[in-house]
Amino acid sequence: MAALRAEALLRTLPGHGQTAVEPYHDQVRTAALAALDELEQAQRHRRLADAWGSRRDAEPEVMFTHLIGAGDHGAAVPHGVRAADKADAALAFGRAAELYESVLGLVDHAPDARKQLLTRLGSAQAAASRGNRAADAYLEAAGFCEGRERSELRWMAMEQWMVSFNIDEAMKLVPELVPELGIVMETPTEGTLAARLGKIGSARWITYSLQLRHRLTLVHCAPSMPAMSLDRVFPSTTCSCPERSLRR
C-alpha cells in the first residue's frame, strides 16, 4: 500500500476510527476495473455490498451501486429509493431525479409502485427546473390511476409545461381537464370580467384573469376545486377570494 501511495495510485482517508482506501484518481479506478472481466467485477461488487450491508451506517447510494454491479437489481431497488429520497431531502434535486430514473429502469414495478416513483420523479424534476421532464413523468404516472388522482397528475403536467413556456403542449390538456376538475372557462366581456373579479363570497371562489397567447380567458374554479397552484402556473395573476388577495 505504501508503494501504491508513493506512485500516486492510491490514497488513504481517515474516518470513524478506520482508514478508507480509494484510488488516487478516477482514471486509476477505470484502469483497475478494465483489468477485471464482468464476472470478476460482479463478484467484487457482491463482496463490497455484503461488507457495506453489515454496517449500520451503510450509505444507501453505495449499496445501490454495488448491488446493481452484482446484478441483484431486486435488492438494489429499496436502497435506490432511499438514496433518491435522501438526495431530495438534501435539495440535490437533479441527483434525486437521476436516482429515481435508475430505480424505474431496473425492474418491472407494480403499477402503484411505479406511479409513486414517477410522481416523486416529477417532483424532483420540477424542483430542478426541468419542467418538460417533470410533465412527462406526471403524465406517465397519470396512466396508472383513475378519477380525481389522474386529473390532478395531468394538471401538474400542464402546470410544468406552462412554467416551461411550452404553451402548445399545456393547452392540449385544457379541454379535457377543465370539465374533469369542475372548472368553468369562458371568454368574458369587460363588464362580466369586472363583476367576476369583484365577487367575494363564502364559497371559496377563486377567479383568475389569464393572458395566454393574446387571448383573455377567465378561469372560474368551483367550490369543490382546490387551489391547485394556479398562481404558480400563471405568474401574472390577479386573484380574488375570501381568504387572500394576491396581486403580482
Q: Quick summary of this structure?
A:
This protein has twelve helices and seven strands. It has 248 residues and is α+β, with helices and mostly antiparallel strands.
CATH class of the largest domain: Mainly Alpha
Number of helices in the DSSP assignment: 12
Structural domains: how many: 2
Radius of gyration: 26 Å
Overall shape: elongated
CATH architecture annotation name of the largest domain? Alpha Horseshoe
Q: What name does CATH use for the topology of the largest domain? A: Serine Threonine Protein Phosphatase 5, Tetratricopeptide repeat
What is the N-to-C order of secondary-structure elements (H for helix, E for strand)?
HEEHHHHHHHHHEHEEHEE
Describe the structure in your own words.
With 248 residues, the protein is an alpha+beta fold. The chain folds into 2 domains: 2-182, Tetratricopeptide repeat domain (Serine Threonine Protein Phosphatase 5, Tetratricopeptide repeat), CATH 1.25.40; 183-248, no CATH class. 58% of the residues lie in helices and 15% in strands. The chain has 12 helices and 7 strands. It has helices at 2-6, 26-34, 38-53, 60-69, 73-89, 93-106, 111-127, 131-142, 147-163, 167-180, 190-197, 230-233; strands at 10-15, 18-23, 183-186, 206-212, 215-221, 238-240, 245-247. The strands form 2 sheets. The protein has a 5-stranded antiparallel sheet with strand order 3-5-4-6-7, sandwiched between helices. A two-stranded antiparallel sheet has the order 1-2. Strand 4 and strand 5 (215-221) form a beta hairpin. Helix 4 (60-69) runs antiparallel to helix 5, helix 5 packs antiparallel against helix 6 (93-106) and helix 7 (111-127) packs antiparallel against helix 8 (131-142). The longest helix has 17 residues, at 73-89. It is elongated. Residues 196-248 have low confidence and may be disordered.
